[in-house]
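Give me a protein, keeping tokens residue-aligned:
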Amino acid sequence: MLDLYSTRFSSRMLLGTAGYASPDMLRQAVEASGAEIVTVSLRRESARVRTGQGFWALIEQLGRRVLPNTADCRTAKEAIATAQMARELFGTNWIKLEVIANDDTLQPELFSLVEAATELCAEGFDVLPYTTEDLSAAERLVSAGCQVLMPWGSPIGSARGLANKSALQTLRAYFPDTPLIIDAGIGVPSHAAEAMEMGYDAVLLNTAVAKAGDPVKMAKGFAKAIQAGRLAYEAGIVEPRDMASPSTPVVGTPFFKIDHA
């Protein structure tokens, strides 16, 4: 079971809701994925004028836990204001906290991220920060009160998978009891399985499913890959070796001499 802020989930897959060809395709993909948490990007204009009611109605019909997202915020002040509106609109303390630094990489702005996380945790939010694999930033986010960390695998929408595996492994080892969710950069199910095999607790996806030729099949594929990766981690993975190691021992094996005379 996945335990986030004292709430337990059977699925270890979180799914974004942006970029689908139609509302019905989004619904089918969510159902196929088995995801129990969906992320929703909150636009301040929508919160003010209550537009997009059809989309909000669809999200409610899905019956999943909604994780509002401060996507596209560029400052701590903007992210805090967006989170406060999200709490009012969705009636939840949960917030996926994003503060973006760079237009090309969409890399998190770590200084503002920590600032916003500190304020929001003090206000009673359950903050899930989108961060990098930077260890010092992770320490500050946990110290601020974040009980979950969401490091990127690689830049959002890049589909490059786990770009810095060594740093991600270090982060996992350094925070053995903190739920860690890979967020961004996952392109194919094998990327998700690899993250789970490393001991990560969950994976958040959007583009890889929404932009696939068949989002429903892709959602199913990711669900199975995440489950397989977690099972492998729990089972105990054999460490790589430099030399061969026969699976069948040769001790006691009979040898027969063939006489060609």
